[in-house]
Structures are given as C-alpha cells and as structure tokens.
Amino acid sequence: MQSNTAALTAPTLIDAAWPARGGSTLVRSAILAIAGSILLALCAKIQVPMIPVPMTMQTFGVLAIGAAYGWPLGAVTVLLYLAEGFVGLPVFACANAAAVCSGPAYFAGTTGGYLIGFVVAAGLVGWLCQRHQWDRVPVKAAGAMILGNLVIYAFGLIWLHTLLGSIRGVAGWTLLRTWNAGAANFLVGDLVKILLAAALLPLAWKLVQRFRTGS
C-alpha cells in the first residue's frame, strides 16, 4: 500500500519509477539527463527527409521527456542535447551527407528556431505534468502535447520566416510559404505522435504503479 501511495503521489513519472534518495539526487539527475539526450539523438535519426525542414521523432522525444522528467530536469536535458550538437557531436537530424549537421552553424539554419522551441516546450509540458498531472489522463496528456507542439511551431516558424524572408531574402517568400514549409507538412505526423504520447504516458503510469505494488 505504501509503495502504491508513493507512486500515486510522485510528482513525475520518473520519480515514481526511480525515486530520488538523499545524496544520490545529483548523480541520478546527471544519468537521466545523459540518457535523455541520447534518446533525443536517436529520435533525430528517425526522419523523413523534407525541404526545408526534415520531419523527425525529435518532437515526440522532447515532449515525452518533458512529461516524464518534469520541467526543470526536462528542460535541462534538452539543453544538454543542444549543447552536444553545438560542440559538434552528430546528434541532430541531417538531410544529407553534404549538409551541416552539427556545430554553431546548424543553429543558424532552418531548424534553429525549432531547437530553441524544444527547450521551452519541454519546460511547459513538464510543468503541466509535474504540477497538474496532465500525463495521467489521455485527454490531458494529448492537451499537453498539443500545447508543446504549438510552442515548437511558434519558435520554429518565426525563425524560419525571418531567415528565409529577411536574412536570406528568398524571392516571394511569404507567411503562407513559411506555414506550408514549416508546419503544414508536419501536421499529420505530429498528430500521430500526439496520440502515441497520449496513449503511452497514462499506460506508463499504470505499469509503474503495478510494478511498485508487485501486482
């Protein structure tokens, strides 16, 4: 009964699955952040090449980590992932062998806004799940994922439009072209990822609670 109660009252899924204990908290957080950054790198490699922005499983990984870890650790994990790519590790999505796939230049490319949006989205979803338990009910889990996706779109589209419309001065580049290139093509795929997360998160809570009770 005590184990079940602990699982039910844990603020995040990872706290229920792996409770922090005294002096091990910092080591635990470091392990989780590194593991999460590796997961994001793997998600980035699962992609459908598209122009100017490839479609990947990154958004699913970012939002799922935010939900499972909570807002502080979730946001830090995404920041670690971005830092790995910034220093040159091959952790980002790459359209082809000739493209710039890591380093500072990658952040100045068409995906730069989405990368920054990842941090904010992970924090928002983490906050909703940690403080309000949105990840325990499918409808609320879907709502958290939708809000997270909207944040990613907002950062991504603003930068994409600025880059191609103003900085690079692509002829005839309009808001509609930005929407079509940076959002419209991904709506169906993002919907599938939202539904997947909405199903998996509450299921994960049930499995953790069942494991903790031994039933």
Q: Which range does the strand content fall in?
A: under 5%
CATH topology: Arp2/3 complex 21 kDa subunit ARPC3
Main-sheet strand order equals: 1-2
How many beta strands in the DSSP annotation? Answer: 2
The radius of gyration over CA amounts to 18 Å
**SSE class:** mainly alpha
Tertiary shape:
globular
Overall average residue pLDDT: 90
Low-confidence stretches: none
Distance between the termini: 11 Å
Number of domain units: 1
The CATH architecture term is: Orthogonal Bundle
The CATH class designation is Mainly Alpha
**Count of helical regions:** 10
Largest sheet, described in full? 2 strands, antiparallel
Q: Could you state the order of secondary-structure elements as H and E?
A: HHHEEHHHHHHH
Helix content: over 70%
Task: Summarize the helices and strands and which ones pair or pack.
Elements: H1 2-9, H2 13-17, H3 25-45, E1 47-48, E2 55-56, H4 58-69, H5 71-86, H6 104-107, H7 112-132, H8 138-167, H9 175-182, H10 187-213
Antiparallel strand pairs: 1-2
Helix pairs in contact: 1-10, 3-4, 3-5, 4-5, 4-7, 4-8, 4-10, 5-7, 7-8, 8-9, 8-10
